[in-house]
């Protein structure tokens, strides 16, 4: 139990720290940042439940007002802005990424982590993000989907980085991937 709490807190902190990296603010209010890499890693390393808990912990601290999101944003207002769908989607993204890792635990880590990161960290995340942007920006779903095309190249790179880091961790510390152990 204590290890789980420590790991969840560590990955919440990793996601927060990745928000400190320089980001690019797009004209429609959604920044391109490295934080989704942390969400992918939370899923690939911690698994579905723990990965989602790490994201929920970060979002709780953000809701309390700490400026831990890209660009130093925090507070309740971020949950009703153009990024709201992406923020809520982080929970599902980490869960799905971890779920894929858990289900394919007998397959090699690198390809599974890559597929898991793309499915959870891009497909699922974009579904939430597009829906949120469509509502907040009063756009149709296709219009909102067109806006997020700017994210695709960077997110594919982040999925590759998450897969490579996860595979490296598995090689360096066999048994360290909680996503590959029975809960």
UniProtKB/TrEMBL annotation:
Please indicate if the UniProt record lists Cell membrane as a keyword: yes
Q: Which InterPro entries match?
A: BioY (IPR003784)
Query: Where does it reside?
Result: Cell membrane
Keywords for this protein:
Cell membrane, Membrane, Transmembrane, Transmembrane helix, Transport
The membrane-topology field of this record reads:
Multi-pass membrane protein
**Coiled-coil intervals in this record?**
none
- Signal peptide residues on this chain, from the entry's feature table: none
What Gene3D superfamilies does the record point to? 1.10.1760.20
Q: Does the keyword Transport apply?
A: yes
- Chief subcellular site? membrane
State the GO CC annotations. Answer: plasma membrane
The record's Pfam families line, in alphabetical order, gives: BioY
Residue ranges spanning the membrane: these are 53-71, 78-100, 112-137, 144-170
List, in alphabetical order, the Gene Ontology terms for molecular function in this entry.
Answer: biotin transmembrane transporter activity
Tell me which family the UniProt entry assigns to this protein. Belongs to the BioY family.
Q: What PANTHER family would the database entry show?
A: BIOTIN TRANSPORTER BIOY (PTHR34295), BIOTIN TRANSPORTER BIOY-RELATED (PTHR34295:SF4)
- Indicate what this protein is called per its UniProt record: Biotin transporter
Organism, by scientific name, is Pseudooceanicola antarcticus
């Amino acid at each position: 139990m204590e290890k789980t709490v420590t790991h969840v807190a560590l990955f919440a902190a990793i996601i927060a720290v990745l928000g400190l990296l320089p980001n690019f603010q797009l004209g429609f209010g959604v920044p391109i940042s490295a934080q989704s890499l942390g969400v992918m890693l939370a899923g690939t390393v911690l698994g579905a439940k723990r990965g989602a808990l790490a994201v929920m912990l970060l979002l709780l601290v953000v809701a309390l007002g700490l400026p831990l999101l890209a660009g130093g944003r925090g507070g309740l207002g971020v949950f009703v802005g153009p990024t709201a769908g992406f923020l809520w989607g982080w929970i599902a993204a980490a869960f799905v990424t971890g779920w894929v890792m858990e289900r394919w635990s007998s397959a090699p880590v690198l390809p599974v982590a890559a597929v898991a990161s793309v499915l959870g960290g891009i497909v699922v995340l974009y579904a939430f993000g597009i829906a949120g942007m469509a509502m907040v920006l009063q756009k149709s779903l296709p219009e909102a989907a067109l806006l997020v095309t700017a994210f695709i190249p960077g997110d594919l790179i982040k999925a590759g980085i998450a897969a490579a880091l996860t595979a490296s961790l598995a090689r360096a510390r066999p048994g360290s991937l909680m996503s590959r152990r029975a809960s």
